[in-house]
Amino acid sequence: MIIVFVTEEPGVIKDEFPSGAFVPKCPSISLDQRIDCFPDAGASKMKCEQRGCCWSPLDERNVPWCFFSTNQGYTVEHLEHPNPFVINVQLKRMAAPSLFGADIEQLTFHAEMQTKNRLRFKIFDAKNRRFEVPHVHIRTVSSNPSSPITNTLDIAHNPFGLTVRRKENRRALFDTTIGPLVFADQYLQLSAKLPSHNIFGLGEHVHTRYRHDTNWRTWPIFTRDTQPNGRANNLYGHHPFFLCLEDESGKSFGVFLLNSNAMEVTLQPAPAVTYRTIGGIFDFYIFFGDTPEQVVQEYLELIGRPVIPPYWSMGFQLSRWNYGNLSEVKRVVERNRAVGLPYDIQYTDIDYMEHMKDFTYDPVRFKELPEFAEYLHEKGQKYILILVRSASLVGGAPYESYDRGMEKNVWVTKSDGRTPIVGRVWPGETVFPDFTSETCIDWWVDEYERFYREIKHDALWIDMNEVSNFLKGSTTGCEDNKLNYPPYTPKILNELLYSMTLCMDAKQEWGDNYDVHSLYGYSMVLATEKALQHVFGPNRTMMLTRSSFPGVGKYSGHWLGDNTATWNDIKWAIHGMLEFGLFGIPYIGADICGFFGDSSEELCRRWMQVGAFYPFSRNHNAMNFKPQDPAAFGADSVLVKTSKHYLRIRYTLLPYLYTLFYKAHTTGETVVRPVLHEFYSDRATWDVDLQFLWGKHLLITPVLDPGVDTIRVYIPDAVWYDYETMERLTDRRKHVDMYLPADKLGLHIRGGAVLPTQRPEVTTTHSRSNPMGLVIALDDNNQAAGELFWDDGDSRVSATSQGVLTMQVTKAGYKDPNNLKFENITVLGVPHPPTSVSVTHVNTGSHLGVLFLHGLSLTLGETYLVRWDMEDEELQRFNCHPEENADEAKCKSRGCIWKVRMVYMFKWVPVPLSTPDAPETDENKRLYKVLISNKPFGIQVIRRSTGTKIWDSSVPGFTFSDMFIQVSTRLPSKFIYGFGETEHPTFKHDLNYHTWGMFSKDQPPGYKMNCYGVHPFYMGLEDTADAHGVLLLNSNAMDVTFQPTPALTFRTVGGILDFYMVLGPTPEMVVQEYTALIGRPVLPAYWSLGFQLCRYGYANDSEIKSLYKDMRAAGIPYDVQYADIDYMERQLDFVLDSEFAGLPAVVDSMRNEGMRFIFILDPAISGNETRYPAFERGQAADVFIKWPKHLKDDIVWGKVWPDLPNVDVDENLDWDTQVEIYRAYTAFPNFFRTQTATWWQKEIQDFYNNIMKFDGLWIDMNEPASFVHGTVGGKCLGDPLLENPPYMPPLESKHLGLNHKTLCMNSEQILNNGRKVRHYDVHNLYGWSHTKPSFDALLSVTGKRGVVVTRSTYPSSGKWAGHWLGDNFSRWDQLVKSIIGICRFREVEGYLPNARWYDYHTAKDVGVRGEMISLPTPLSHINLHVRGGYILPQQKPENTTYYR
């Protein structure tokens, strides 16, 4: 019994269950799947059972002893789809005890597919509004859905759960059915099973490894001023976002919970994640990506892409807390200038203030501070000062900023909403600005402007904004209420919400501090951004914040807080930088050499080396510790020398770093990047977290341990060049020992990079006037590419193996006042010296280029051609004549055109193939090499092991136009097999100028007749006995011509040329590799391997029943009985004819005796019925193929089998007349669409449940076949060239057009992604698109494997179905052609390969091998032979496989 009291909070369950009234259903699950039901302390058997949970103690404490039962959570009361992209669900809490009281009884679940890669779902109180984060950027982000939400989200009803799936492969990514939803007023919990342990992110904490440990680790998230020390403490920022790499494919997803309340996240080894938060709502965003980088880009599109900081902020920076006075600051500046240290920015911390009060400066110790910025500017340096969110002094000396704030009521208040809450920070007793208030923001802007007029500076550092308070809550403590003392407190530091901050019942404009505490830094950043814009106007500046929240990176950078001078901290900083790259704050770094503690020379030296490659590179330390600016260690110290060396490299590469920030700002790419983001297919990189990348191309390998000069590092799978020696590494994809003495760190450029450089100076002010350069590192293919962003313009460069580099300006919106020049271009990886070099200044784009040059003077913003000539042993001259006896005149007489430039149009084939995520980069591992010829253009593919050219298209005739594409290739031999579906008289092709058309059609097999399927794949044998296969992925009408050269010509009337080659080297391996590409064949049900019976023309169910009895009586093995369209009422799908009213009972009887039953379905659906649910529901779901709307908003009607209702067909009339008079109009489903698959499954389900059981499906007429040409009336709308293209392949009845016996080619189909395509381009895919929905429906409806048999096929149809060879004839030649063999009856000539063979029937060794022999052909059996050396499993036969 549940006792519910009516209170002032409707919908909240107030009371507990009476003792013993609830019985938990405890699941039998593995330990790693237990969801903790007692996250607080003090668990016991009694307390656990009082919560309705399951108690099972263990001998280890990590695993929950008290875990949830399966009868807790919520159930679905109502579910609706207001549109294809949205799901709304009403939830009701299940009757169960409460964990912490005040459970909310009725919830609303709202989910929407916002874009193809972003899903949002919210769970909230159905009755009462709760706090939601007022994120200023997210609310501006628009939605653009293209994929139905059902492709991505499944809902479980009892108990409620959701499963987020990857739509491409239905992999479960975020499955909450692992545990119940808990939603109380101050305790929300949700768990989800994840697909892998590769979890990155969540913050802000110190994570001792970048990849999370999933062994029951709990991470609290709640902004807090505390020292990062390696414990699992909550730190300055609040970032409930993680990225999960699914596997080696790179497929990844991200999860973001938009909630600012105190929370904790537990990771467990299932793997699974559990969120516990104590307020707000669940507002989740799921991001889908093909790579980790794409996930980050999707996330940043939502929360706001990062700011691009000013160029000077990329320079090195010096700071410390408590220089003491301005004279000491200047001494530090001067000594570091004196040693020639590259150094752009000097800071002052709170010691510059008068009594540490914001908007003041000490008039004694920092008397000359108003002139300090100018002092720095004279040498090209910048000045940054700190503000600590105006912790305003109460009482004492006059303080105008405080007084003006009091007048305007800008402070955070106590719970009464009026009295400012008072705490204690640096100045003493302080009040706290409420940055969520517009009045406060105006005050802050005004105070900042006043201060800037007095103290000039260049940027702002804001601190202590977690919000930090040295007291617990306030000077008067905190009241005893549910906000300050909630029923559950996450495992935050000190386990007290108001520790080191304000009381939770304090008030801000946005709400209670309980809800908005973690937004304090975020709101301060927004206010400060407004102040900076007001003061600096059009000039870019910089902001640095300690506390952060998702979206802060749009305005500010961040440093990793008050670290310590230890070897652990230098390591942990790398993990922190990588994580803040995920969080969208790429301007990130740690205090170099450590904030607290005295840094040793060795530690500081190694830290200066790696710190030179922090995006935000600042040396900062605390008061009372030794100075650690580089010059403090001595002008001749190794530390100064190595610091200068690597800072000069940093400044040399600042154009590259600046470009990375531009890419981050415009696309969301990471700047500092984990190695796994680029090499995710290599599992070894998943744990590489003490090396990192700048972008794609620069690998930084620091020394992070004391007393070592050789470290174990990983070299990812690419070409790498040592930056300093320019030598190419010989190792790749392996761990190596790298020698890095005291003054060195590892720095390597990835092959394929073009890095823009600039001659360095001691400040960016001066370096930006220096000449620029390029470092080009060639990859395995002798190619490289890169970008340069320079203020308002960028420059793209690329290098290729022909010795070309194009400096092509793609956007020249900025003219540099320094008239910058590119002076040096360095190309790494060139095997031989060039024979000549030339430089040309050109005005337009060019495909010519460069090598390695000094002394150039190429102006930034201009377009150049730099060219060198080299000999390349792999390039060969190709014969530009065609095959034998061919010449140019003959070629032109054929009407052929030579085109060098390909114009690619959208007509790709939407058939997914299983291809590697990245090409094999090691050329030595490839079985082939590829060469390109220019005159004529052609491609050669050469087998490395033998030198055989398996493809050579460098022959005349290559043509690429809108409706005619042709390419020819020489073949390595005359042994070619494949292409279809067409009747071939022999398995091996005859190459004597035979042409075979391919276009799916309802056409019985016949010589050179294009039939039901399209398979543009062939296997070729080579003279060396190797084999290869070639697939042309093109779905337009086409033909192939063989000629005795040997050569082959492909012609197609649309799409593109998209070839795939597999290299065997054996024929069987070719087939295996080909099916690996297109998809392995479905494993059919065992019973489907038995004998099967069918006919078109059963008169009634009695005939089938009698047939079955006769077969059984004769003892003939027989497993499957079919029913053709005879069983249908007037050939209507899903409708049983009265003559077959007893068929369901017959089928049930047969199935009870071990038989299986398969029935036929055609795709065409009658539209002329008064009441025909299949059509009505299909029309309502908009599943039928239509005309393009600009032509006619109607279905493209055809006619197939269904007759009109209430007519008697006069079968004495000719066929065409019968079709015209008696056949119904039919509509053709568009099976590309998810909604069609849903409709199709629903109709099959209803038939199975309500009419007749079955075990398999037979789908026919899906070429698609129609009995009229194009449409009813024969007039196809739109472009007539689509029906009769300029070139018509040699198809059956080609003179009647492509629409003969099928649909109009201008019919419009819609792909699953919403893209509209012409039937002209996807006609051959109709049967393919029909197959998977039928397969999915069969599995869903029957719950068993079953079998689908389809007539029309395309590459990969075998993943879901089998096929029969169509409507053949009862002739001997058809028997012959069914096995592609030549038989004589009475005797047959057969070849026995070179092996031992045994006669299956007599078990005798035949005694012949490697010869043709004559074999007898008695009527009693067929010749069967077993190869020696093999064991064939067998089983005693029965009349059906059911008895196996």
Characteristics:
1444 residues, alpha+beta, Immunoglobulin-like, TIM Barrel, 8-stranded antiparallel beta sheet, disordered N terminus
Description of the structure:
- GO terms for molecular function: alpha-1,4-glucosidase activity; carbohydrate binding.
- It holds the Pfam family Trefoil.
- Keywords: Disulfide bond, Glycoprotein, Glycosidase, Hydrolase, Membrane, Signal.
- This is alpha-glucosidase.
- InterPro entries: Gal_mutarotase_sf_dom, GH, Glyco_hydro_31_AS, Glyco_hydro_31_C, Glyco_hydro_31_CS, Glyco_hydro_31_N_dom, Glyco_hydro_31_TIM, Glyco_hydro_b.
- By secondary structure, this protein is α+β, with helices and mostly antiparallel strands.
- The chain is built from 24 helices and 76 strands.
- Strand 60 and strand 61 (1047-1052) form a beta hairpin.
- Helix content is 18%, strand content 25%.
- The longest helix has 17 residues, at 438-454.
- Among the domains are: 74-301, Sandwich (Immunoglobulin-like), CATH 2.60.40.1760; 388-559, Glycosidases (TIM Barrel, Alpha-Beta Barrel), CATH 3.20.20; 888-1078, Immunoglobulin-like (Sandwich); 1086-1351, Alpha-Beta Barrel (TIM Barrel); 1383-1443, Golgi alpha-mannosidase II (Immunoglobulin-like, Sandwich), CATH 2.60.40.1180.
- The chain is globular, with a radius of gyration of 38 Å.
- A 9-stranded parallel sheet has the order 32-31-30-27-23-22-21-34-33. It has an 8-stranded antiparallel sheet with strand order 4-5-7-8-20-17-16-14. Strands 63-64-65-68-71-72 form a 6-stranded parallel sheet.
